[in-house]
Design a protein that fits this description.
There is one protein chain. With 284 residues, the chain is an alpha/beta fold. It folds into 2 domains: 13-79, Chemotaxis Receptor Methyltransferase Cher, domain 1 (Orthogonal Bundle), CATH 1.10.155.10; 90-165 and 197-282, 3-Layer(aba) Sandwich (Rossmann fold). It has helices at 13-27, 36-49, 55-63, 68-79, 90-107, 125-138, 156-164, 177-183, 195-198, 211-215, 234-247, and strands at residues 113-118, 146-153, 166-167, 184-187, 190-193, 201-205, 220-225, 248-256, 269-271, 279-282. Strands 6-2-1-7-8-10-9 form a 7-stranded mixed sheet. The protein has a 3-stranded antiparallel sheet with strand order 3-5-4. A hairpin with a 2-residue loop joins strand 4 and strand 5 (190-193). The longest helix is centred in the middle third of the chain and has 18 residues, at 90-107.
């Protein structure tokens, strides 16, 4: 079936299996066979752009072609949905700002150093939100502290948006008005973060399968990894949980999505009895 005729190229089960293996090997994301229609719908237009007649051609281009790394990024951007916004799931963020953050600041007051990792941060709304919370919690004390906030993602396209610091009205839809006035400048439909927040966050491309790269950054006081584990199978979830255990300080905190759980995946963490917290600490 030809893309030139405006029809979607059909994907065989064998092609689906091969593509799913490539995606899993490179990203850890597991595509079930019943999700074939998702890949077909999101990659069909790409085949038309490349003037390819079938997925065998595309798989070859993706695996042995000179542009295979660039194409994997292009494919990944199309098959994943970077659904995020500033202050997403605010009840959980309030737990971080009002309960966890003051506790960490008190316990680290002698060193005056705080390290936060926002893993799989997409286009940066989460780490910037955390930066705003640290900024307003420390207030005039901020210059005395060494704050490290790192946002990582596998998608370079998403990270490019994050590093620009410019967002649409859709990204700030959950942001309180007083926050918009304090931390953003508006020009038309664009909202640009002010430098005092942007300077608090660094970004880096990182694959959650790469535990050695994570180890290079040392230990973190807080790790956010929300709404990511749902895309992984149990083996990948266990690997990621092990990585977070290795990279979290003994009294640090791990935050995950409200629809996720580490139950049955790791005995290294204990869930905190904090309503709406969805957070964990290392088991004692």
């Amino acid at each position: 079936m030809s893309t030139a005729a405006g029809q979607r190229v059909q994907m065989t089960d064998a092609q689906l299996k091969e593509l799913a293996e490539i995606i899993y090997e490179r990203s850890g994301i597991h595509f079930h066979p019943e999700k074939k229609y998702v890949l077909e719908s999101r990659l069909g237009r790409r085949l038309a752009e490349l003037e390819m007649e079938d997925y065998d051609q595309y798989i070859q281009f993706l695996t042995i072609g000179p542009y295979r790394d660039d194409e994997f990024q292009e494919m990944f951007n199309r098959i994943t949905i970077n659904e995020t916004s500033f202050f997403r799931n605010e009840p959980q963020l309030q737990v971080f700002e009002n309960q966890i953050l003051p506790q960490l600041i008190e316990s680290r007051n002698s060193l005056k150093r705080l390290r936060i990792w926002s893993a799989a941060c997409s286009s940066g709304e989460e780490p910037y939100t955390l930066a705003m919370m640290v900024h307003r919690t420390l207030g005039v004390r901020l210059p005395d502290w060494h704050i490290e906030i790192l946002g990582t993602d596998i998608s370079q396209k998403a990270l490019d948006v994050a590093q620009s610091g410019v967002y649409t009205s859709y990204a700030i839809r959950s942001t309180p008005q007083n926050i918009l006035g304090q931390y953003f400048t508006q020009e038309g439909d664009a909202y640009e973060l002010k430098e005092d927040v942007r300077s608090m966050v660094n970004f880096e491309r990182h694959n959650l399968k790469d535990r050695l790269a994570a180890k290079r950054h040392g230990l973190w006081d807080v790790i956010f990894c929300r709404n990511v584990l749902i895309y992984f199978d149990d083996e990948m979830k266990q690997s990621v949980a092990q990585m977070f255990e290795d990279q979290l300080t003994d009294d640090g905190w791990l935050f995950i999505g409200h629809s996720e759980s580490l139950r049955g995946l790791s005995t290294a963490f204990e869930g905190a009895s904090i309503p709406q917290g969805f957070c964990y600490q290392k088991a004692v």
